[in-house]
Structures are given as C-alpha cells and as structure tokens.
Amino acid sequence: MGVAVILDPRYKLARSEYKFSMLCQIQDECSSKIERIKQICYDLFHEYQQNLSNSSNAFEYSTQELQMNAEQDDDAAYQLYIRQKKRKNGSFVKTEFDHYIEEDVHPLSTNFDILAWWKVNGARFLTLQRIVRDIFFPVSTVTSESSFSTSS
Questions:
Q1: By Cβ atoms counted within 10 A, which residue in 26, 74, 84, 102 is the most buried?
Q2: Angle 146-151-152 (CA atoms, 0-180°, nearest 5)?
Q3: CA-CA distance, 131 to 4, in Å (whole number)?
Q4: Closest by alpha carbon to 10, among 112, 131, 111, 96?
Q5: Total of domains in the chain
Q6: Which residue range(s) make up the domain with 64?
Q7: pLDDT band at 102, cuts 50/70/90?
Q8: CA distance readout (Å), 61 to 7, 80, 84, 109
Q9: Is 143 domain-assigned?
Q10: Is 142 within a domain?
Q11: What's the pTM?
Q12: Residue 149 maps to a domain
C-alpha cells in the first residue's frame, strides 16, 4: 500500500510522512517506517531495471538501428549516445525515483484521474510508469463470476 501511495502524484512520500507522524508516538519509529517504504520502492525499481536490462534483445536491435541512422542523422547519433550513457551508468532508476519524489505533489481534486496523469507524465518516468501499470491495472479482465463458473 505504501508503494501505491507514493506512486499517486497527489500524495507521494508526503502523505505517508503525514500519516505516520499522526500514528507514531516516537519520531524515530515514524522515520524508520518511512525509510522502510522508500527502501521497498528502491528495491522494486531495481528489480524492474534488471528486468529491463535482461530484455536487451530489443535494446540491441534498436541500438543497431540507431547506429545505421546515426550516420545520416545527428539526432539519431545523439539518441545513441544517450542510450549508451544510460547503459554504462545503470543507476538512472534511483535518480528517476528521486526526481519524481522531489517534484511538488499534484493538487487534490475530486475529479483527478491517476491513470490519465501517468499516461501523460509517464514519458518522464519510464520505469515508474511500468510499475504503475502493474500495480494499478487489474491483472485480468475476466470477471470473477466467469472464473469460478462450472459451465463451459
């Protein structure tokens, strides 16, 4: 639940900090709970990043495609440079999470659509967007009635 709250741009880390400060009597206890949730987020991001690097076949193909285009186009050469730089660093996921957390929270409103927000802003947070997709979208669209139906 803590990860889902952090991935809601209206709340991010501030909502958890606020709630824990109301519930915890001891400030150190509150801080340790917040740090635990943050660590879970970092671990999750790291896992997604590993999965992304394991599916490097698509990356290799697009890199080869960019190399061919780079000879003709300076923008393609620049994109190739950025991809190779990210690949060497490998730690841009944590920076992505930190950047997201440091941004101001979205104002509270009754008609806020979190999925629409992530659709629009997800290009800035590619790994986070993948996590949001897995957390907020249902795993299956099959209704529970048809899942447990004994008829054909």
A1: 84
A2: 90
A3: 10
A4: 112
A5: 1
A6: 2-136
A7: very high
A8: 31, 12, 13, 43
A9: no
A10: no
A11: 0.62
A12: no
